[in-house]
Amino acid sequence: MTALVAGAKSLGRARLFVLLALAGVLILTIAQVITGTEDLTSPSTAGAALRLAIPILLAGLGGLYSERAGVVNIGLEGMMIAGTWFAAWGSWLYGPWYGIAFGMLGGAAFGLLHALATVTFNVDHIVSGVAINILAFGAMRFLSSISYGSETGGSVVQSPTVQGIDNVDLPFLAGGNILGRSTPDFLGWLETHDWFYVSDLAGIARGFMGSVNWMTIIALAIVPASVWLLWRTAWGLRLRSCGEDPWAAESLGVSVLRMKYVAVMISGALAGMGGAFLVLVQAGIYREGMTAGRGFIGLGALIFGNWLPFGVLSGAFVFGFGDSLRFRGPDVVRSFILAVAIGLVIAGVYAISRNNVRRTVITGSVGVGFLVFYMLVSAVPNQLLSATPYLITLFVLAAFSQRLRMPAADGARYVKGEAH
Amino acid sequence: MAQVPVVHLSGVTKRYPGVVANRDVELKVMTGEVHAVVGENGAGKSTLMKIIYGMVRPDEGTIRIHGEETHFKSPKDAIDAGIGMVHQHFMLADNFTVLENVILGSEPRRGAQIDFRSASDRITELGEIYGLKLDPSEKVETLSVGERQRVEIIKVLYRGARILILDEPTAVLVPQEVDDLFDSIRDLTGRGETVIFISHKLEEVLSIADTITVMRAGETVGTTTPDQVDAGQLAEMMIGSELPSPQTRESTVQEEVLLEVSDLSLRSGSGRDVLSGISFTIRAGEIVGVAGIEGNGQAQLVDSLMGLERSATGLVEVRGKKISQLETRERRAEGICFIPEDRQKQGLLLTSPLWENAALGHQYEEPYAKGLWIDKRGARKQTEEIVRRYGVMTPGVDVPATALSGGNQQKLVVGREIMANPVVLIAAQPTRGIDIGAQAAVWEELKTARAAGMGILLISADLEELIGLSDTIHVLFEGKFVAELDPNDVNPETLGSYMTGAGQEAAS
Amino acid sequence: MKGGKLLTTVVAPLIALVISFAIASLVLLLVDIDPFFAYSEMWKFGTTTESLISMINRAIPLFVSALAVAVGFKMGLFNIGVEGAYLLAALVAAWVGALFSVTPVLHVSIILVVAMIVGAAWNGIAGWLKVKRGVHEVISTIMLNFIGFSLSAYLFLNFFQEDTGSLITATNLIPETGWIPSLNPVLGWFGVEPRAGSELHGFLVVAVFLGIFYYYLVSRSRFGYDLRASGVNASAAHASGINPKRMIMTTMLISGAIAGLVGMSTLLGFTHRYVQDFPSGFGFAGIAVALLGRNNPVGIAFGALLFGFMERSSLILDLKDVPREIVTIFQGVVVLAVVIVYEIVSRYAQRRAVAAAARATAEQENDREVVAI
After folding, report:
1. Is B47 on the interface with A (CB under 8 A)?
2. What is the reported pLDDT for A14?
3. Res C305: pLDDT
4. Tens-place pLDDT, residues A346-398
5. How far, in Å, CA of B133 to CA of B187, rounded?
6. C80, A130: Cβ pair inside 8 Å?
7. CATH code for position B437
8. Does B308 contact C358 at a Cβ distance shorter than 8 Å?
């Protein structure tokens, strides 16, 4: 088929993502039946998972644009921090939608700094990213001290409460209003019937579509938009060429340096938007340290997602889900561990069918390990729960790092006109 | 009335510091012909092509395109003039599809989007016309080398090139792919395109070219046609009718076998046999030379012997001890050292001082180390000795290696390896970039080392060096040893033929 | 060329400092504060005896942390995991140290060794992941930091807490044999008598030894040669016989071992127990100091002292209505500035070295024809 291109392949990845998601829910449902818990597939868990996934998604998308253009961006955390601060400040002064705008601008400003250091001065990308993180942290603290220091509810480490962005219920599926008239809640109806698997699916879907925030919708929309932008437009093609082979791009007349600058600034803006989400949707306030490493988890989602938009989305979901388990209580976590064990055993069986002995042994033994852990431990201690998202990130990276493909010239030192 | 040549270079000269790359070159290419430019490495072909393609400006001489004198300021000017360059080292993004690589920078639009349909159609169309069949939606990394080359050709055709320059196009192709390429070239010229074809593979050149220009040492030696010469005569023109005569000397070869290599083979990731069945021995007091045009497996041979390339199969023994499984450091400890082909990549720490560079590869032994510590004084003393004996021009041993000229860097590397007194020394292009006086000095050192019982594997593109130093010469062509020659008997025809694959039919 | 080294190791950071001061001053001016007023207040307060002692005390963990990071940097490895490593190490060492009591030197040594082992093991996980699974050490060390926080919180609250059941959350007190005495008596020899409560941490001695050890390890030992070669040209390092995987693992272990010692000056000289609010943040600040000090022990020492000075002297700013956080901005700016300035300066130094060498040898060279191959 001559008209098929990589963009379509990216849509193929969306299909894969959907299949894996459905399979995942099935496993969760089975685990729930065995353990008797409900919460793994309840709407509230789903809603929480979605809400926690969005900042990670935005950070990961930020990383996507930057790395696709060949610039490694470790400074996403710092850009997100800037986003949190500026979003709170903007919302405090002018209102929540200004907050988003300010958050994005703040992130983009730090993006500009990173671009300056790496693209113009050829500083090592990682060193620059680390420096940006340190600078952002210090700068935001300073800004807090001069803005909030004397306000009620404010201090050096937090802002007064600010107005957030509203939620909305999607019509028809979740009982939202259209033009003021209420509509039926189809998914809710399905859920109440307690049919195996179908009701679980409905519950999860209901959780996504009920009381969903406008920013969430926007953030999710950026995913297919990025697919279109990066794989279907000339601009996107040229941007990706900067990350794959900037010398080939240069030889064909692409202005590589300019594209890198733009990409890194977009990266900062998206990370900033992620920060804005944290403030305007989740917390309603700026607090120092509220990013809690989500910029880095976003990078993890990027790697897990193989540098593809829908991949980043799946990664963000996995990590968001892991993050949400923290608040669900120990039995739910136990149930989840059982689900992981089941999943790994199935993966092991799959590996046997592919005659891959090594993979079978590894997934099999890890799966058994999880099973044993499940049976021995009656309650996962709270402090270890808080490490869940980071453990998942590490585990996923360890399992998949070697099979992933980053843009070929990611992190490469590029000087215009220099022979390759 | 004589036709106006489509490309006419006359009196073109280009100088670089220390070397004249092109001297008074004359090249006349007619429309619709396949014009081959042949010569050894360093003959000046690449520089000439860069001039035609606008990447380099000549110091003297004129360039006429379709009879009009032109000055290219950049490759873009050349592209506008209808000249397309297909580089030897492809400039393709592996992760991109054929289509994406071809249209990059000149994307057809349909509204805000790329018009994939029209681009795809055009690529397929070009493919059908010129026999360059490609699936636009395939990722370049899955393509064979021959297919990748087709992408590069389509890239220039897509942008409207009428004059194509192919730089060593068959260097990495297998015979079947070469035939496909030649069919495409005939299609191209049949439709009025012009092809300039740079190569050192004489049999191929004779089969495809309409006109052949031979270059040697930066000058045009002559222009001829396939019906006027055969491969042997061409080889003679390329290499020069007078080969250096080996210096008569007493053989210092002893009985003891220092290095024994049996059936060394290496397969690349894409399935190509980079080395096949390499077998040879080096005895004490012997220099074994390996002749061959670069790119026929020399680098891989060195890497396999040194343990940098671990996936080679076969047996390697030093003094009867099997080292095939050992890692690099252990092999060095067994007494095998090497002078790398690319000193900047594998042989030097450019930002480090000279004495640290002298220690590179020998940092575990005296005089560079004492116990667990680096012996700075010993290292500096040794470095000063190297500097003195090998004539390294430097203000001192504390300057960073990058401050030295290329030639002096090479002298340092050669000096440190020989002075480490290895059992077996692998010397890959040891006198690359060195002035004649220093070259002679290095040769003396190699001969002295040989006389003292060292075994040396000499891999070189410099025939004077090979014939002058070697006790025996193997010819490496496409990863195989295709001949073993006696330096006393070798003549340019035979040597040239083996090096360029012309003698393949005879050999097989 | 000696000049080039000087240029990059001293001049670059100096230029960066000047730029950072300029920017910080600009920021202060923008919020209507006289920068010179702020600086002079900081100087007045910061140069009292007590402040100088505090400066050194604050500098010690920064110094050690920067050394840990610098070992990795020399090879191009980014160990961001010093933070998690040192907190875990401090916790475990505190608990172990409180279990027994032997002669002082032995007791302290055991505690230090435990801390080094824990630190090495924790960072070693990242090294293992990189070598075996190809996980980039930046992300793995950052993840391990967070996991380390959780793990230490868990261990702390469930196993290592004080037996007496008091409300203070801390480990058992380490017996006095496990204390490092303050150096105030030594100061007394020089006639310096700080006020009560201001003790110069004895760990300073260990830190100095650590700095000397770093110097010998990195600049004089065979391992250090391999380390630096791997950082300069990985390909040539490999060709010279260095095993890249082994280097990565060893370097992470050494870096982690040093990281484990970061909390020791506080633990053994001051708190003598691990408390819930054990000082944190040294891991990240250490990265800044390592960058500022160009991975050179003397430079790192200066950087640590500078940071220590600024942190201490900034305390006065609260009382003078100047936002104390100007110091954090300064620290952030100086890090970014130093890496940019370093790139520019080192390229300039290189050009100069090439030109100088060419000039020196041009006189020695005649018009010889070079063989073109």
Report:
1. no
2. 64
3. 94
4. 777 776 777 666 667 777 777 777 777 777 776 667 777 778 778 877 887 88
5. 13
6. yes
7. 3.40.50.300
8. no
Statement to judge: residues B68 and B198 lie in one domain = yes
* A4 and chain C in contact, CB less than 8 A: no
Q: Please give the residue range of the domain that contains residue B395.
A: 340-421
**Phi, psi angles (nearest 5°) of residue A321:** -60, -45
What's chain C's average pLDDT? 86
Cβ within 8 Å, pair B93-A245: yes
Contact C326 A142 (CB under 8 A): yes
Phi then psi for residue A269, to 5 deg, are: -65, -40
Q: Which of B210, B239, B268 is the last residue of a domain?
A: B239
Amino acid at the residue C307: F
Report pLDDT for A228: 94
Question: Quick check: A1 pLDDT over 60?
Answer: no
Out of B75, B93, B120, whose CB is closest to A248? B93
Residue B289 domain-assigned (yes or no): yes
Q: Which domains does chain A have, with CATH numbers?
A: 1-40+329-398 (no CATH), 42-169+211-327 (1.10.3470.10)
Q: Is A1 on the interface with B (CB under 8 A)?
A: yes
Residue B2 carries which DSSP code? P
219-248 in chain A: CB under 8 A from chain B: 228, 232-234, 237-238, 240-241, 244-245, 247-248
Which residue did the predictor score with more confidence, A209 or C243? Answer: C243
B317 shares a domain with B355? no
Q: What is the pLDDT of residue A402?
A: 67
Q: Which amino acid appears at position A161 of this protein?
A: T
Q: What angle do CA B68, B70, B75 make, to 5 degrees?
A: 135
Instruction: Kindly calculate the radius of gyration of chain C based on its CA atoms and give it in whole angstroms.
Output: 23
Select the CATH number that applies to the domain covering C34-322 from these four: 1.10.3470, 1.10.287, 3.30.1300, 3.40.50: 1.10.3470
> Cα(B352)–Cα(B371) distance, rounded to whole angstroms?
22
Say if residue B109 is in the same domain as residue B195: yes
Domain ranges in chain C are: 34-322
Put simply, the answer to whether A126 touches C31 (Cβ < 8 Å) is no
List the chains bordering chain C where 3 or more Cβ pairs fall under 8 Å: A, B
Residue B441 domain-assigned (yes or no):
yes
Mind telling me how many Å the CA of B295 is from chain C's nearest CA?
Answer: 15
Q: What is the pLDDT of residues A70-82, one digit of tens each?
A: 999 999 999 999 9
Give yes or no: residues B224 and B306 share one domain: no
pLDDT at A11: 56
Q: What pTM does this model have?
A: 0.83
Report the pLDDT value the prediction gives residue C2, as an integer from 0 to 100: 53
Examine the domain organization and report whether B207 and B276 are in the same domain. Answer: no
Number of domains in chain B: 3
Q: Nearest CA to B88 among B18, B152, B169, B8?
A: B169
State which H helix or E strand residue B476 sits in: strand B472-477
> B129-177 pLDDT, tens per residue?
888 888 999 999 888 778 888 899 999 999 888 999 998 888 767 667 7
Residue A204: closest CA among A81, A49, A80, A326: A49
Residue A35 in contact with residue A339, Cβ under 8 Å? no
Order the strands of the B194-199 sheet from edge to edge. B83-86, B163-167, B194-199, B34-38, B211-216, B219-224
Domain membership of residue B503 (yes or no) is no
Which one of B96, B102, B115 makes the best mutation probe of the A interface by having the most chain A beta carbons within 10 Å? Answer: B96
What pLDDT does A202 receive? 75
How far B137 CA sits from the closest chain A CA (Å)?
5
* Of B239, B273, B304, the domain-final residue: B239
Q: Do B105 and A244 touch (CB under 8 A)?
A: no
B211 shares a domain with B69? yes
**Do residues B427 and B415 share a domain?**
no
- Asked if B119 and B199 sit in the same domain, the reply is yes
Chain C residue at shortest CA distance from A399: C133
Contact C353 B395 (CB under 8 A): no
β partners of residue B411: none
- Looking up tokens 């988890």 gives A297
| Any domain includes B46 | yes
